[in-house]
Design brief:
Radius of gyration: 51 Å
Strand order of the largest sheet: 3-2-5-6
């Protein structure tokens, strides 16, 4: 273990020496990126590794460069964040054009890869409820990373899971800096049970009040809506409708007889051989028209009367009186409830 650490330190020192010779080429062209790069070098020289690494990373975000990524990898490696260093070196390989820089990045990737630590977060089928969210150190973990060994830096990780309508779950795991393989399984999430209110007991030394349940008076059931008046209204309504129907029939007959009389003698001023028959038909038409009008009047009056009887003949609402005794320490009495 001491030999491996010594070799790694020697490798980092060699990279530092090589990068020192090519600082001019590694400095970002963008003024902001260059300022951050220079600040990162100053912080690294002062031993402030976390701040230095963050500055290298910020410089690379502004202007991605292979040289900056190599320096970031070196800084993360000194910091003990092996996976972050390995990732920076691999990113440098996607941008590097200088054969010397490429050789350095490839060597670091090859040396660090066997020492990586992995964390597997398993989510079995029985744990996959609707709306499930799994987080690693408060960062939502993409479902594509579930059940996969993911390279991570050494340290403490808080794994949490939550889903609507289910109890939340959380645990913490420790991952070693190098060569560790940790697996954690997300359990089945129990559903949240409905809250049940526990009844509180009486005050100490006091007897609970005794209340006898009310017993409503027996009113024989709800009264029927078809009272005597309403039954009479229904009968009167039927009579009214029949009268109007009869009036309509008589009216049509009167009109037909009048048409027949007109067909026999169209012009009263001109003598007609069928005058007697025409007059008879006309008289019949007049009689039936009279009866039709009488039937209309009777039918209309009957319907109006039926409506009045129906709306005024509804069932009466009887008053309701309920009496309940109440007993408690120090007094007794009754409760009377009256409804109308």
């Amino acid at each position: 273990m001491v030999r491996k650490t010594t070799v790694r330190a020697a490798s980092i020192a060699a990279i530092s020496a090589w990068l020192a010779l090519s600082t001019g080429a590694a400095v970002a062209q963008n003024s902001d990126a260059e300022a951050l790069f220079n600040e990162a070098e100053r912080l690294e020289a002062a031993g402030q590794l976390p701040e230095a690494c963050d500055a290298f990373e910020a410089s690379n975000r502004i202007e991605p460069r292979a040289g900056t990524l190599v320096r970031l990898g070196q800084c993360r490696e000194k910091q003990g964040r092996i996976v972050s260093a390995w990732t920076a070196y691999k990113d440098a390989l996607t941008r590097v054009k200088d054969p010397k820089k490429k050789k350095v990045a490839e060597a670091r990737v090859k040396e660090l890869e066997p020492t990586l630590s992995f964390l597997t977060i398993s989510v079995p089928d029985e744990s996959r409820v609707d709306g499930l969210v799994v987080k690693r150190n408060d960062v939502v973990l993409d479902p594509a990373l579930w059940n996969r060994a993911v390279p991570v830096d050494g340290g403490s990780y808080t794994i949490a899971g939550s889903a609507p309508g289910h109890e939340a779950w959380q645990t913490t795991v420790e991952v070693a800096t190098t060569g560790d393989k940790v697996a954690i399984e997300v359990p089945k999430f129990p559903e949240i049970k409905s809250l049940v209110t526990t009844p509180t007991g009486p005050e100490p030394g006091r007897k609970p009040e005794q209340v006898v349940p009310e017993v409503p008076p027996d009113d024989g059931g709800s009264p029927s809506m078809f009272t005597g008046k309403r039954k009479l209204a229904l009968g009167l309504g039927v009579v009214g409708l029949a009268a109007i129907g009869g009036g309509a029939v008589l009216g049509m007959q009167a009109s037909s007889l009048e048409d027949d009389a007109f067909a026999l003698c169209p012009d009263p001023a001109v003598p007609c051989s069928d005058a007697a028959e025409a007059q008879d038909l006309s008289d019949q038409a007049a009689d039936r028209a009279l009866f039709a009008n009488i039937a209309y009047g009777v039918g209309g009056a009957a319907i109006v009367g039926a409506a009045v009887l129906w709306f005024t003949g509804g069932p009466a609402k009887p008053s309701r009186v309920a009496v309940a005794p109440r007993l408690a320490p120090g007094y007794s009495g009754v409760t009377v409830r009256v409804g109308f």
